[in-house]
Design a protein that fits this description.
heteropentamer; A alpha/beta (235); B mainly alpha (333); C alpha/beta (383); D alpha/beta (255); E mainly alpha (286); A: alpha/beta; Rossmann fold; 2 domains; 6-stranded mixed sheet; 10 strands; 27% strand; D: 255 residues; alpha/beta; 4-stranded antiparallel sheet; 10 helices; binds adenosine-5'-triphosphate; binds magnesium ion; membrane (chain B); transmembrane helix (chain B); LivM-like (chain B); cell membrane (chain B)
Chain lengths: 235, 333, 383, 255, 286
């Protein structure tokens, strides 16, 4: 399988801080790739660099064999990349409906179908369709954020800690939905919930101190106690 | 951090000293008047900064307090006698009225987002302007009136020293307040009101206190302003007066006390210099254009104001770089 | 040789020290055009009075112009600079009453004669007066008296409309007094927000009162003329009267063609040599433009100073100057002016006019009805 | 044991929607109670009512027998109810240390002191540093709080809460987004506090392993209503809880 | 009764004029949250360029088009140079836009001189009809109609497109909007230009209304526009319209019945509204 997204040795500065110094990873078509690492390791920054929100100052980011490292964010998104940010990025004064409307790139039949699928997945959103996003509960915001990324047909989804704040039953639904989508959409996931990551991930990359320090097959990681202890502090 | 504050205190003491010896070196009285006006506007701008920079409250009607001080002084010195005791009485009256008004306005609006405070103060200062216009028996309308000042204040050099002393006093006084625990809570309110509240601080008290502090200081500035002119008219209540304070504060650096002083100096000097140029070079006839460009350039090169931006450079040097801190982390872990 | 009283004007080498005059005017901001008129007038006046030599009794005249920006604090700063650094012997100015009032105490403090031009507030030669103040400009009361003289007669009913601030209120009070003295009846006083865009309420009340005249005192750009025309006051038999302003503002008075009023100055109204010289010289220097409302004022201020100096033989001692100037008459583009002894206000001619459309002139032109003599327009003494 | 906190028919309505619906419960002193329930069940809202961020449409709240329903959040904090926030809520442009110092300052009752320099309050700074150490954030003390990574902000939240030294701690998903590696450390902190035995703690979490390990009892909210309140073992056996909340992910607990 | 109609119609016309001036600010300040103190400069430029075009071409329609063009161009320049670096920062916005305001109004004097300039009303809009004692001033009726048309157009655009939503979303979280594939820079630019064009249009329509324009006209009306935007409710067009009409009518009636208070009427109105309904009369729902 070819890789849809290939990030090579990117370095990123935020202001005067040098945050990433050499992150590399690949996301293969049709797979779920998981980025792991402790707090402050640089996972979020990595995703933001891919999205062009914190542009990388060196290194390459290839998507569909095109270097997107220098593109502005909206163009990157336009190439078919969806993003669920860590802080959900809900527009608090807009209603759930309006939040979805802003996200929708098309208004065609397919999109409407997907909308239906999303509302079945997260019935809460339907329930609070006309409510301001800012008033939603933490978990509901998370659902809305995911829903906004699902509404368009994307080739690649970058999802930052989707399980955060979600009830176990919803986490399960999200997991199922990701597995369901993975046929058409390649997924890059940052996840602290190792249980979830290990269940749905195909391969993993561990980031520490702004560098990729390890990568491999998820199955192998699950079994490798030593590795888990070393990088993730769990046994 | 600690070192920085000491540096700034020393710097201010040095500047103070230089300003004290200045008149004996260069005794042009019109220059002294310019400096005196800078001191007074610096006080006014610092008072504004207590609101804007330290508590995060935007006001579009700060001229209200300036005007209250101005008219209290003008009216009392004109109606009664131009002696020192009456001047002190005038300052007291100005402060009391300002306290009262800022208390009321504060209670009415500080519950709300600062945005509405801004517009409501604009409304109130507008009403004061109309009142000053309409209460003609007291104020002689918008033409205003001249009055005499206490004998000790007639001499411009003496007045220069009085204003300088006052400015330094206000600076150190406000600085102490902003670095007190009280001041830290003001900063916290600026950053995140709701969180401050849940830490156990009654934010309304702090905001009202800040608003009173700012109001009284502004009123003081207003008193000395009309003392320097020996004349008062309704322009002290105008939106331009508020905007002057706002510009000086922002250009110098919001949230620093040296900023407003520097801002006042910068704007007054730039003004002086540009109008002088206007007399010699015809291209500067429209000197206001260059004045406007000055503001624009200031924002572009000193986004946090002059003092604020310099402070940021200083901080950059002081904080350990990210790499160092990570290494430390590793060594510890 | 040397006739000055010699209080230090001579330089050591015997050549005479120049006489210095500081002129304060709004050279930028909203009143810029007034300030520039004063400045041009003043320059012309000095030339005229000294025959282009720019000296009196062997002493050169030097002028320093300063911009007050129509801000009292700037005016004070600049006036102090003039007095302290330039060591001027006279102050002249300024374009706004506020600035001028703020500077009055300085004239007193430094004991220098100040010639006020063109600020109008009555209080300058009234409640805020000090003996160093002389005024070549007319004051609000003179305007009002002239306005009254132009229209007030026995039995005439007059309504007034003025902006709601000192200028308007003082003006109407003075007008009322003058008009009633002439036997007219002021039946209604309306005041509008100086920044108003809508005058319906005021005009409606005026229409309801059915006066013979509506006397308008207005300054500022948002004028009521359009709406007066739109609400057809003239068709309803209410004649409009007001002071004709400077040329730029005259062009906004198209709807008022036919109105009877007064003016301080319009270049072809006065008939005297000084004015002829002014108009000709002004055209020559400023590519064909005619002098405007406040140009002759600036010129008069200059003439008054030079005339006084001629009388003192170049002596700039203030007490001597004051004594000389009190009651002094001098020829100006507006004819003879006299500084009244009591309040140092220059009594001067004003002009009753009618606005008419003239071929080739893009604005309505004030046409002389009658020259109002200085005695006729003398305002009450208020200091 | 004595009851420290009690609610009586607590209800809040937003428009037509009852987010918290008639909840009566009581919390014994020095107890550790967890609150679980699906997203939007009203857990955070329940905390907001107790801490005073929201005021109820109906019902009463008693703290140590005193009716605090009408009190401001400020007063309640001073009376001993401290909380952390689900959505990270810090002072972004102040340093991490300053953030905690403000909490310590409040706890020590230094509020309106205007004329002494804050440096003369050494104890405050020391105490703040100590709290930062506790949550493994000491080397970020001089970073601006707004520049922290998400997990670090969560830790700062906890440090600020601890600094308040309140008798009651309301923890709203303290470890959400915290890395697998650090959760145990924070868990340790919470355990220590519990072990000291002088605090009453309420915890909202979705991490069942953590809840099972810490809780003396669990209450379950559903659609704003109190569905169950009891010992952890019993709660996880509840069928509604299993089907509508846990799903299959945590089979291990129910087995 | 006639009096009542006269006061109402003229109050309404003033209100509509205020609305035309405030509409652009409703976009720029209300929706985009930019404290643009240079907005008044755009009125003045609209008025001056419009009046100039009118004297050159003698066609009021071309004058209006000219003013709108000026507004668009100035809006482009302003957004690009002045506003872009300071989005989201009110403090910087105040300083930089006040600076730009000085530049704009002084440049007016450079181009057209410091004197006030008279503005003529086109013949077909000049004069008035008199029906009984009711006086209908043609130009004022025209203003009322233009105001209504403008309001309907804006409402239509905002309701039918996502622009309004995108702008509000962009103000809250610019990064996120971009991550959703929207070129927020371009959207802000366009909206700012439209807002500026509306300001310029307000300016050129104001000119014949008062008959004269001058370089300082901007600031005066800008403050009134800010007041209207705030009491109407930030970013709400129905709110701005309502507030404008309220300002117009209360000005007109107060001046008749309580002339002593008429100077204070706008400020009183704002104070009362803010004390009793701090979020403004209309809240943009969401
Ligand atoms: N705006 C910023 N300015 C300065 N430093 C920053 C900024 N944003 C992030 N950092 C720093 O960069 C590092 C990496 O942050 P990042 O958010 O990418 O971490 P993360 O791996 O996503 O962590 P978490 O699991 O806690 O979300 C952290 O040390 C953080 O403090
Ligand atoms: N201020 C508010 N206005 C309107 N509705 C609100 C408000 N606050 C909360 N709600 C609604 O109340 C319900 C309960 O929200 P709450 O935040 O308490 O849920 P929660 O149990 O904490 O959920 P989560 O686990 O997702 O954090 C939600 O449907 C939410 O939309
Ligand atoms: Mg992260
Ligand atoms: Mg919650």
């Amino acid at each position: 399988m070819s890789s849809l997204l290939s990030v090579q040795q990117i370095e990123t500065y935020i202001g005067q801080y040098h945050i990433l110094h050499g992150v590399s990873f690949e996301a293969k078509k049709g797979e779920i790739t998981v980025l792991l690492g402790r707090n402050g390791a640089g996972k979020t920054t990595t995703l933001r660099s891919v999205m062009g929100l914190n542009p990388a100052s060196s290194g390459s980011i290839m998507f569909h064999n095109q270097d997107i490292a220098a593109l502005p964010t909206h163009k990157i998104s336009g190439l078919g990349i969806g993003y669920v940010p860590e802080d959900q990025g809900i527009f608090g004064d807009l209603t759930v409906e309006e939040n979805m409307k802003v996200a929708m790139k098309n208004n065609d039949h397919e999109t409407l179908e997907r909308m239906e699928w999303i509302l079945n997945l997260f019935p809460d959103l339907k329930k609070f369709w006309k409510k301001a996003g800012g008033y939603l509960s933490g978990g509901q915001k998370q659902m809305l954020s995911i829903a906004r990324a699902y509404i368009n047909q994307n080739d690649l989804l970058l999802i930052d800690e989707p399980s955060k704040g979600l009830a176990p039953v919803i986490v399960e639904k999200v997991m199922e939905s990701l597995l369901e989508m993975k046929e058409k959409t390649t997924i890059v996931l940052v996840e602290q919930n190792f249980l979830m990551a290990s269940r749905i991930g195909d391969c993993f990359f561990i980031i520490d101190d702004g560098k990729t320090v390890h990568s491999g097959d998820m199955k192998a990681l699950k079994e490798d106690e030593q590795l888990k202890r070393k990088y993730l502090g769990i046994a | 951090m600690r070192r920085y504050f000491q540096v700034s205190t020393m710097a201010m003491a040095l500047v103070g000293f230089m300003l004290v010896v200045l008149p004996s070196i260069y005794d042009s009285r019109s220059f002294l008047i310019l400096m005196t006006q800078i001191f007074i506007f610096a006080i006014f701008a610092m008072s504004y900064d207590i609101l804007l920079g330290f508590t995060g409250i935007v006001s579009f009607g700060h001229a209200m307090f300036f005007g209250i001080g101005a008219y209290s002084t003008g009216v009392i010195l004109d109606r009664f006698d131009h002696t020192l005791p009456y001047f002190f009485l005038a300052i007291l009256v100005g402060s009391l009225i300002s306290t009262f008004i800022s208390f009321i306005v504060g209670l009415l609006t500080l519950r709300l987002k600062s945005h509405y405070y801004a517009m409501l103060t604009l409304a109130f200062s507008g009403l004061f302007l109309v009142a000053a216009e309409k209460w003609r028996t007291l104020t002689k309308g918008n033409d205003g009136f001249t009055f005499r000042v206490p004998d000790v204040m007639i001499d411009r050099t003496t007045f220069y020293f009085i204003c300088l002393a006052l400015m330094l006093f206000v600076y150190f006084f406000l600085k102490r307040i902003t670095q007190s625990p009280f001041g830290k809570v003001m900063l916290a309110i600026r950053e995140n009101e709701q969180r401050t509240e849940s830490l156990g601080f009654t934010i309304l008290h702090y905001k009202v206190l800040a608003s009173i502090l700012a109001g009284v200081t502004a009123s003081l500035a207003g008193s000395f302003y009309v003392m320097s002119l020996r004349f008062v008219n309704t322009s002290v209540f105008s939106i331009d007066t508020t905007l002057d304070a706002l510009l000086m504060t922002i250009i110098g650096g919001v949230g620093t006390l040296a900023g407003p002083i520097l801002g006042a100096g910068l704007i007054e000097f730039a003004h002086h210099w540009l109008t002088e140029l206007a007399k010699e070079h015809p291209i500067f006839e429209r000197w206001l254009i260059f004045f406007g460009i000055l503001y624009i350039v200031a924002v572009m090169f000193f986004p946090a104001g002059i003092v604020g931006t310099i402070q940021k450079w200083g901080r950059k040097k002081q904080t350990p770089s990210k790499k160092q801190s990570i290494e430390k982390h590793k060594a510890a872990g | 040789s040397d006739s000055a009283s010699g209080d230090g004007e001579k330089k050591g080498d015997g050549s005479k020290a120049p006489i210095k005059i500081g002129v304060l005017a709004s050279l930028s901001g909203a009143l810029e055009s007034y300030g520039k008129q004063t400045k041009q007038g003043f320059e012309l006046g000095l030339d005229y009075a000294t025959d282009g030599k720019m000296e009196v009794d062997g002493r050169k005249i030097k002028v320093v112009y300063e911009d007050t920006e129509t801000k009292p604090e700037v005016a004070v700063q600049k006036a102090t600079k003039l007095l302290e650094e330039d060591k001027v012997d006279f102050l002249v100015g300024s374009s706004s009453s506020g600035d001028t009032l703020a500077v009055l105490p300085l004239a007193e403090e430094y004991q220098k004669v100040m010639v006020v031009e063109p600020a109008v507030a009555d209080s300058i030669t009234g409640s805020e007066f000090n003996k160093y103040i002389f005024r070549t400009a007319r004051n609000s009361s003179q305007d009002a008296v002239a306005g009254a003289a132009a229209i007030a007669k026995k039995g005439v009913k007059i309504a007034t409309l003025a902006p709601d601030y000192s200028f308007g209120r003082d003006g109407v009070a003075a007008f009322k007094k003058a008009a009633e003295k002439l036997g007219a009846d002021v039946v209604l006083e309306e005041y509008a927000d100086p920044a108003a865009t809508d005058f319906t309420s005021n005009l409606q009340k005026i229409i309801d009162k059915k006066p013979d005249y509506l006397f308008v005192i207005w300054a500022g750009a948002n004028s009521p003329w359009n709406q007066i025309a739109d609400m057809k006051l003239q068709e309803k038999g209410i004649k409009i009267s007001t002071g004709a302003p400077d040329i730029a503002a005259l062009s906004t008075m198209e709807p008022l063609v036919g109105m009877e009023g007064f003016t301080v100055y319009y270049h072809d109204l006065p008939n005297n040599k000084v004015n002829d010289w002014l108009v000709a010289e002004h055209k020559k220097r400023f590519n064909g433009q005619v002098p405007d409302l406040f140009t002759p004022g600036g010129m008069s201020a200059a003439i008054s100073i030079v005339e006084a100096l001629k009388k003192t033989k170049g002596d700039t001692d203030s007490d001597k100057l004051i004594k000389t100037m009190e009651g002094m008459s001098f020829e100006t583009p507006k004819g003879k002016m006299t500084f009244r002894k009591e309040d140092h206000q220059a009594l001067q001619s004003m002009y009753a006019i009618k606005l008419e459309k003239k071929e080739g002139v893009p604005y309505p032109v004030p046409v002389l009805e009658r020259e109002l003599t200085p005695e006729e327009t003398a305002p009450p003494i208020q200091n | 044991m004595e009851t420290i906190l009690e609610t009586n028919g607590l209800t809040i309505q937003f428009g037509g929607h009852k987010a918290v619906d008639d909840i009566s419960f009581s919390l014994p002193e020095k107890h550790f109670k967890s609150v679980i329930g699906p997203n939007g069940a009203g857990k955070t809202t329940f905390f907001n009512l107790i801490s005073g961020q929201l005021s109820p449409s109906k019902g009463k709240i008693f703290l140590k027998g005193e009716d605090v329903t009408k009190m401001s959040p400020t007063l309640r904090t001073r009376k001993g109810i401290g909380r952390s926030f689900q959505i990270t809520n810090v002072f972004p442009n102040l340093t991490v240390l300053e953030n905690v110092r403000l909490a310590v300052q409040s706890q020590m009752g230094i509020r309106y002191q205007m004329f002494r320099h804050f440096h003369s309050y050494k104890k405050v700074t020391e105490e703040a540093q100590e709290k930062l150490m506790l949550v493994l954030l000491e080397d970020k003390a001089y970073a601006l709080a707004g520049n922290l990574a998400h997990g670090e902000k969560r830790k700062l939240e906890i440090a600020m809460l601890l600094a308040l030294h309140t008798e009651i701690l309301l923890l709203d998903e303290p470890t959400a987004g915290m890395s697998v590696e650090e959760v145990p450390a924070i868990l340790e902190v919470i355990k220590n506090i519990k072990a000291q035995g002088d605090r009453t703690i309420m915890l909202i979490e979705h991490k069942m392993d953590m809840i099972m390990e810490l809780s003396d009892s669990i209450m379950v909210l559903f659609n704003g209503q109190l569905l169950a309140d009891g010992a952890p073992k019993e709660i996880v056996k509840n069928e509604t809880v299993q089907s509508a909340y846990l799903g299959g992910l945590y089979d291990e607990f129910t087995a | 009764m006639d009096l009542f109609i006269n006061l109402t119609i003229n109050g309404l016309a003033t209100g509509m004029l205020v609305f035309l001036l405030a509409a652009g600010l409703t976009l720029i300040f209300g929706l985009m949250d930019v404290l643009n103190f240079a907005h008044g400069g755009l009125f003045a430029w609209g008025a001056y360029s419009g009046v100039w075009v009118y004297t050159m071409t003698n066609s009021f329609l071309i004058a209006i088009a000219g003013a709108i063009g000026t507004g668009l161009v100035l809006g482009f320049i302003t957004e690009k140079i002045i506003i872009q670096p300071v989005y989201g920062n009110h403090v910087q916005q105040i300083l930089i836009t006040l600076g730009f305001m000085l530049v704009l109004s002084e440049l007016l004097k450079v181009v057209w001189g410091p004197n006030q300039i008279s503005a003529k009303t086109p013949d077909y809009l000049a004069g008035s009809w008199e029906i009984g004692n009711v006086i209908l001033i043609k130009y004022r009726l025209f203003i009322i109609i233009v105001g209504i048309i403008m309001f309907l157009c804006i409402q239509f655009i905002l309701k039918r497109t996502k622009v309004g939503l995108i702008v509000r979303a962009g103000v809250m979280n610019k990064d996120m909007v971009q991550a959703l594939g929207i070129n927020i820079k371009r959207v802000f630019m366009l909206v700012f230009m439209v807002g500026s064009a509306m300001a310029a249009l307000g300016g050129v329509l104001l000119a014949p209304y008062s008959g004269v324009i001058h370089a300082e006209m901007g600031m005066e009306f800008a403050i009134l526009a800010f007041v209207v935007v705030v009491i109407g409710g930030m970013g709400s067009f129905p709110g701005s319209l309502f507030a404008s009409v309220l300002v117009g009518l209360s000005g007109s009636f107060m001046a008749y019945y309580l002339p002593d208070l008429s100077l204070a009427v706008n400020m009183l109105l704002m104070a009362v509204v803010l004390i009793f309904k701090p979020s403004g009369l209309f809240v943009v729902k969401g």
